[in-house]
Amino acid sequence: MIRAEAISKSFGKLNVLREISVQLEAGRVVAVIGPNGSGKTTFIKTLLGMVVPDRGRVLFTNQAITKQHTYRSQIGYMPQIGHYPANLKIKQLFEMMIDIRNDATMQLDEDLVAAFQLKALFEKPLGTLSGGTKQKVSAALAFLFNPSVLILDEPTAGLDPLSSEVLKDKIQKESQKGKLILITSHVMSDLDELATDVLYLQDGSVQFYKTIAELKLETGESKLGRVIAQLMSKIPQMS
Ligand SMILES: Nc1ncnc2c1ncn2[C@@H]1O[C@H](COP(=O)(O)OP(=O)(O)OP(=O)(O)O)[C@@H](O)[C@H]1O
Description:
The chain is α/β, with parallel strands linked by helices. It contains 8 helices and 10 strands.
């Protein structure tokens, strides 16, 4: 569904992505894991066209994404930190997003709007929201247009335990419909519940991209946290 072909990206002298080639298939939930600064967010932003790679290319359903934006309507993106205009009310933000979509026939998915009880907060300006509430707004927007791909950057960070469970249930529900879901997270227990595959980045390179079942078999560990700890201890650190 999405293919990255040898994508590389530098910021100044810093090589943030080095020749990343991966195939991401519909129906999979891919956990993008790696130490802080290993390039996870930059990688997912290249899939979204928000970062343009220096070399290599990204294909969405076999079409190169360069200089075309229509494919983006098929991706729901939940950023690590949502930046919204402070004076805009939640209701206005939703209305604006629906307006931009400009598709009256579209069936909206308001599951998370309801589950997070966002309608009760609709008149609140975004600048006054707590970090967790802002996360809920970002999550509800990512799922709103029923996209075939979801890219979720640290989705449960800042959410209270109940809201975190609500979001995980929703991710599972959408995955069962055959969607491709990419999640970056440092919370291994969440990924253990949700992910089918692990894409592990270190210093901008793919260290491994395997199914969780394979990784558990290979390491003899039953918990993803322990699997990753074991594998990380074997990866030579770059200076
Ligand atoms: N626009 C930019 N300009 C300069 N450097 C950048 C830019 N975006 C990212 N970087 C650098 O690229 C490296 C990778 O950043 P990235 O955010 O992709 O890492 P990450 O794996 O998502 O980290 P974390 O786990 O901390 O979220 C970091 O050293 C970061 O400072």
